[in-house]
């Protein structure tokens, strides 16, 4: 079974509510407190990044997690990383995370990788924003 996530999802979303998933496609998801709360504004990039990390943690039992390049960019925001395409194989893109010149590459790369892979070591980057 496959699951596609994009845009708003409920904050109460739990992996335990889902059947065992083979593949999850994630494209810049962010959660919201209540579906009908008109006072809720779209979260800023930092909040979106934190929500995305929480979503990855909730879905860590899936066999495969596909992230769009825009989702990887969102994860790299707080580190000041530049995300560039390195190469592609069919519809799979490999992205480079390029640190700013004033910080050691190993420190930043490991920090971003930790966010991305700590709870979802199966994550890969997909080229296509739609599946």
Question: How would you describe the overall organization of this protein?
Answer:
It comes from Lactuca virosa. This is FBD domain-containing protein. With 131 residues, the chain is α/β, with parallel strands linked by helices. The protein has three helices and six strands; from the N terminus they run ββαβαββαβ. The chain has a four-stranded parallel sheet. A two-stranded antiparallel ribbon has the order 4-5. α1 (45-58) links the parallel β2 and β3. The radius of gyration is 15 Å and the shape is globular. Mean pLDDT is 57; it is low at 31-38, 108-115, 117-122 and 125-131.
- Tell me the strand percentage band: 25-35%
- Put simply, the count of helices is 3
Q: How does the helix and strand content classify structurally?
A: alpha/beta
- Secondary-structure element order, as H and E? EEHEHEEHE
What does the oligomeric state look like here? single chain
Mean pLDDT: 57
Strand order of the largest sheet: 1-2-3-6
| N- to C-terminal distance | 14 Å
For the sheet with most strands, the description reads: 4 strands, parallel
- Low-pLDDT stretches are 31-38, 108-115, 117-122, 125-131
Rg calc: 15 Å
Large-scale geometry:
globular
Number of strands: 6
Instruction: Summarize the amount of helix as a percent range.
Output: 25-40%
Task: Give the topology.
Layout: E1 2-10, E2 23-32, H1 45-58, E3 64-67, H2 69-76, E4 82-89, E5 92-98, H3 105-117, E6 123-125
Parallel strand pairs: 1-2, 2-3, 3-6
Antiparallel strand pairs: 4-5
Organism: Lactuca virosa
Protein name: FBD domain-containing protein
């Amino acid at each position: 079974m496959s699951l596609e996530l994009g845009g708003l999802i409920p904050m109460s979303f739990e992996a335990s509510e889902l059947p065992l998933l083979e593949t999850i496609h994630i494209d810049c998801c962010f959660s919201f407190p209540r579906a009908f709360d008109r006072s809720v504004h779209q979260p800023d990039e930092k909040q979106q990044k934190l929500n995305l990390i929480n979503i990855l943690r909730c879905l860590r039992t899936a066999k495969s997690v596909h992230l769009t390049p825009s989702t990887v960019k969102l994860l790299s925001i707080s580190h000041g990383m530049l995300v560039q395409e390195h190469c592609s194989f069919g519809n799979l893109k490999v992205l480079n995370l390029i640190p700013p010149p004033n910080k050691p590459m190993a420190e930043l790369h490991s920090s971003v990788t930790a966010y991305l892979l700590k709870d979802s070591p199966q994550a890969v980057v997909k080229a296509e924003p739609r599946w």
